[in-house]
Amino acid sequence: MQQTTSHGVVTDSVRPPEFSRAERLRVLTMTAAGSVVIGYAGVAALLALVSSTAAHASFSTTGVLTAAAPGWLVAHHVPLRFDGGQLGLLPLLPTALVMLLVYRAAAAAADRLGLFEPLQARSVVFSIAGAHAVVGSLIAFLMGDEGPVRATPAVAFFGCAVVSGVAAVAGVAQRCGLVEVVFERVDPVARRGLRAGASALFALVAAGALVLALGLVFSWSTTASLFDQTGGTIGTGLGIWLLCLAYLPNAVVGALSYVVGSGFSIGSVVVTPLEFVGGPVPAVPLLAALPEEQAAYLPLVLVLPGVVGVLVGFSLRDAAETPRARVRAVLVAAVTVGVGALVLAAVAGGALGGGAFDPVTVPAGLLAVLAFGWVTAPGAVVAWFAGPRPPRVVEPEPEPEVVVDEADHDEEDYEDYDEEAEYDEDAEEVEEEFDEEEDDGIEDGEEFDHDLDEYDDLDEELAEDADPDLDDSDDSDPDSDGDPGPEDSDEAEDAEPEDLADKPR
């Protein structure tokens, strides 16, 4: 059957089942609590694995569950404080895994409740984000201000709410029509720009990952030696490997900043394609990809963002018919790349304990500006010239006036002239005939008046024959002056045309 959503989209689907208020509350509670419990259990299991394999670590269930609390906050990207300083450089891989867990939980709840409208997504998003925020602030409060690891309850509340809320919105966006609502308000040219921008951001991240992988391959001997320095035990090696894996997304974002040209810094060490300042770095195998000195070939990595910008322009060459509209699509793509790079750089760096390696900085503003420029400049040029151009409207040239010489008239002109003359003569003859007919009509009218006078004389003679005393009576009347009396005039007026017609003329 067809059902219409609140944003005007008609879909052919089965009507969702009706749930009572208690059933909906139960589903939402189980979803929110399940995402919190499963995430906490995953962190605890990981810590238990590391503790059980470490050489000199004591393993206990209570200790693992207690240590999992700050780990759960780290997974929600909440900074931790301790006596030596603050840990603001948080790994992105656990955060990505928690968001994936929340994404799947929100999508499953939306499918189970049969949600299909944007406003219906509020219950799922608010329940999940609220549960994570309350648990995060409660953990930060129980950790206290005198423990070895501390967290601010307010920061924990909003940090957990933002991370889980964004993931929940992504989980219900497609099912509740949020994507359609957003795209309905965007014109097709801007929509193409958004898609091209997302693809360009992914391409830049892939370029950064490629540069990082090449750096690790070229310095594999240094990477292996750093693993050997950890002691050679299984637990220690597993811990170092998990640490590198957790911070791998952070390293990719740093490589992205390096490829674009803004670079990054670790304490006093500054690494960019055009500048290198050496210094001490942590003994982490992942950092073996850093260059040891400035080389002449390092600026060649700037070709990669230029190629990405060219590809963006080439992909948008048919986004619109006019060059200006295509350039607008390129600008939308560039803004998308810039905003995405800004967010990634903001969450990839941070404080690192207040030591010699503090802070780890990825310049978010400079990265966003450079990413925007790398997409805009080559992309706009390619989109302007590679796409179709509207045809030019050529005004027709005025035809020259033809000057006709009277001496060059041919016989046809004379024939036309003779025909016009004959037509004028015929018109004059018709007018003369019409005037003669009018004159005949006037003469006929005079004859008709003459006949009527004869008819009046005949009537008088007949009247004298019928009444011979009529003349005497008229003469004897002193008031008579030869004119008919009132009665005679009335009789004459009452006479009908039919009676007059019957009488002989």
Automatic annotation (TrEMBL):
Residues 391-505 are annotated as: Disordered. Keywords: Membrane, Transmembrane, Transmembrane helix. Residues 396-499 have a biased composition (Acidic residues). The chain crosses the membrane at residues 27-50, 57-75, 87-103, 124-143, 155-173, 194-218, 296-317, 329-352, 364-386. InterPro entries: DUF6350. It holds the Pfam family DUF6350. This is Uncharacterized protein. It comes from Saccharothrix saharensis. The lineage of its organism: Bacteria, Bacillati, Actinomycetota, Actinomycetes, Pseudonocardiales.
